[in-house]
Every structure is written in structure tokens, then in C-alpha cells.
Amino acid sequence: MTHNNYKSPGNSKRRFDIHIEKNFEVSKVEYGLFTSRVLNSVEKLTSKVKSNEDLAIRISISEFSSSNQVVKYNLAADGKNLSGNSYQTLDERAKAFKSSPPKYNFEFLKVSQSLKERLLMINTLVRDKKLIFDQWNLKSVEPHPSLVFNFFGPPGTGKTLAAHAIADLLKIPILIVKYSQIDDKYVAENAKNAEAMFLAAKRDGALLFIDEADSLFSSRVTNLAQGSEYGINALRATLLTTIDEFEGIVILATNLVQNIDFAFTSRMEYLKFDLPTKDLREQIWRQHLPSELPLENLSVSELAAVDNVSGRDIKKAIVNAALRARYKNQSSVNQQDLLTEILFIKTKNGCSDIRSD
User: Does one domain contain both 215 and 120?
Assistant: First the structure.
């Protein structure tokens, strides 16, 4: 990194030119972390000047593309942040993230017994962390026990529901964040939004649940424009530091676990959510059929024989079957309505055959 500072003749404004160039020996994460810190420092500095006329900073960043062409892009700050918006503190950004009471408990969650035990052990880790790692001295073996968990598996298999159940058991709120809440059209904004997300979770004492985490923690940026790649690397670097410093529980939900950047894998525990077995599907069907719903010729066993469907698929099938019944002016939902809808969803998912477990 090089920099120059000067005053223009006849102008009292102090000007700084900063140039950052990536070295081939520096990893993308290290480079992103360094650049992110420079940008954040510049924004804090420019936000404190008395007037926009007092200070001007220009930052140029050079990277080598895959074709060895130098790609340059410039950022400027004049008493505003680098995106051109009015400067926002992290506390102000954190106001956009709001936690809420958990909606589900472990009684509602239908997963395998082995997975349920693993989920309940998260509560044990939080409750007995000092006993296990301080009194029993397991900190000598693991000085930094992780409270970051990656729930991965097909959509609709209970990852979000499990996060709610854990928060309910711990009697704490849950803060649910989607990638769209972090993503911003301006370079350098994503990293600050991610930092504000963690600040909001700390503020509320909440379990932080990050949905669509494969987008946020992905290592696949090779097909993006250089400016976008820079922004994602800066975001990834910020996530690495904030996860290490955050003392609460973080749960990621991912469908494409293979896309998670290797830098994060050692920082989290992985729990796999599978599509439910026939026994679990029977439980899910019974659980989602309200006692007030008029049913005719119901056979839950026959419904549960339709495999390769998730709990979310079953919920959708019940709602759609009720709509189908009213479309046909029926006063109740029959077995054929339910079968038609669950088979329709299964076909849409790309699974057209029925197999027993």
C-alpha cells in the first residue's frame, strides 16, 4: 500500500491518495481483511471531520484478473462513506436487524433421534461451558470451543425449525437474517452490514440464525466481476473476525454445504438434516392436520408412503388439498385430495416414483 497527502494550491482541503495492490503471495481472505480494515478506518476518519471541505480521500485498488490484466477501481470519500451515503454507525445499522421470540419447540420438531440428541447437546454446551472447559480443564485441549453450527441438508427438512427450538430451550430470542439483508449494491457496504448483524445479536442476547448461508460464506467468486469479487472477499474477511469474536450462538442454514469457504470449516460444527423416513413422515402428517380440519377416508400410512418429500412439502400439500376441496365445493378434505397434492409436489421436486423405506 502506498499513500500521498498534500494540499492543493489556494485550497485548505487536505487530500490523501491511497493505492492498494494485491500481491500474489497474499491470500484472498488476508487481502480482503486488510482492505476492509483500511476502508472502515477511512470512513470513521471522514465521518469525524468538521466539514466536507476539510478532507478528501481517494483510494485506488488494483488486482490481477485471471487473464493477468490489472483491474483498477477507485473509491472516494468526502466526509461521507465510500458508497456515497451519509455515514451510519454500526449501532444505526444494527437497528435494521430485529430479533423475535422463537415460534417452535423441540416437541414440534420431527427429526431422527440421533440428530435430536446432537441438537440438545448445543443447549448442554451453552449451559455447562464453564464446567466442561474451565473446571474440567478441557480448554487445555480446546481453548476456543465453537458455538457456530452449520445445519445443512435439503430444503424443508427442519433447519429453521431446529434453530427456533434451540432458542426456545435456551429461553432467548432468535435473530433470523437472510443474505438479501446483507447484500448491498455498494462495494464495502456488505462487510459493515455483516458486522452490524452480529452487533444486533449481541444487543438482544439472541441466537443468530443466518439463512441462505451458502451465499454469504461461499468460496465461489471466480465468475464475478473484479469489483464484486473484491466486495465478497472483504465481506468474508469481516465474517471471519466477527465469528471469532462473537460469544453467542451462530447457526447457519445451507443447502449447498460444499460451497462454504474452507476458511470457515474449522470454526463450525456440522449437523446434517435428511429427508424424513416413513415413521417421521407419519408424525409430520399427523402433526400438521388440525383437529378442526374436516377429513374423509384418511389413511396417514398411505400418505406417509410417498417418500422423497420434506416436512415443508407435507405442510404445503395439506394447505393445497384444503384449497382443492373448496375449489370443488367439498365440505371436507378427502384422502385423494391429499395424495394428489403431495404427489404433485413430489413430481415437481423431480421424484416421480413411490418407494417404501
Answer: yes
